[in-house]
Amino acid sequence: MNKSFIVRSLLLATSCLLGLAPLAHAQSDQINLDAGLPTRLEDAYPTARGNREFQLPVRYQRSQQGNNLVEYTPTLELGLFRNTQLAVSVPIYSGNGDRGGSGNVQIGGLYNFNTEGKFLPAVALAGALTLPTGLRSEGTDYNGRFILTKSLFGTLNRLHLNLAYFHNSQPGVQAEGNELKVERPDRLALLVGYSTRIAPQSSLVVDFVREQRRFRGEMGSSLEAGIRRQMNPRLVLSLGAAAGLGTDADKFTTTLGFQHAF
Fold it and tell me: Which DSSP helix (H) or strand (E) runs through 9?
């Protein structure tokens, strides 16, 4: 199928979704965690029903080999239904690292099953389809995420657990020096984290990530931390950083995030 036709169809579908989304008082929330803003951790709660939010995380990544990659991911997030959010995003890469997949269209969603109780955590499932509209992309990939969130003693100190699965429909081979590296068709990642409010308008997020990396035989671990700041009821800014542990993980990453409800 022609890639330009796919993009035009998605733009039309997104416009229809905007029209269908019920109007609500627009508001961004520093407590609500979205992956990439500013760490990869996500909580079990969707955006409010009727909310419309533009997000722009900008992530700089430095590999162990010294390659640099900057990822810009403009995202439109919609609270179409109760306990449900949908999102459309298009990551764009620059730098001398691997830019394969730049321009792919991603369509994602999250559904929250319950509000947490005294002992039961909040539970959610999230997932996304990645359409091959970008650079050197073939086949439709997908991912899923199981999410738990639990407050400690009814406070804003919260624990989070994410178990993520990624499927590559057409794994390839990449030459690196004298070595041929083979992509995994399937991989897993485990994220365990903590978030808390550290000031009336600011929140802290810290997490640990253990993951199967993109190429076979590679495992990575990293420590991530970030600050989310509520600038006004509609605007949240975030800043984060991560340090890789071991030789397979990225050396370090930094993230600057922007969220604006409308």
Answer: helix 3-20
261 three-state secondary structure: strand
Residue whose tokens read 């802290």? 204
The candidate with the shortest Cα–Cα distance to 222, out of 246, 205, 204, 256, is: 246
CB–CB of 59/65 below 8 Å? no
Q: What is the dihedral of CA 25, 30, 31, 32, to 10 degrees?
A: 60
Beta-carbon contacts of residue 188 (< 8 Å; ≥ 6 apart): 163, 164, 165, 166, 211, 212
Is the CA virtual torsion 226, 166, 251, 193 positive or negative?
A: positive
**Domains with residue ranges and CATH for the chain:** 3-28+38-261 (2.40.160.40)
pTM, full prediction? 0.89
Q: Are 72 and 90 in contact (CB under 8 A)?
A: no
Residues 133-188 pLDDT 10s: 999 888 999 999 999 999 998 788 999 999 999 999 999 888 777 788 899 999 99
State which H helix or E strand residue 75 sits in.
Answer: strand 75-81
β-partners of residue 60 are 70, 254
**Residue 14 Cα distances to 10, 142, 192, angstroms:** 6, 19, 33
pLDDT less than 50: residues of the chain = 1, 5-7, 9-10, 12-13, 16, 24
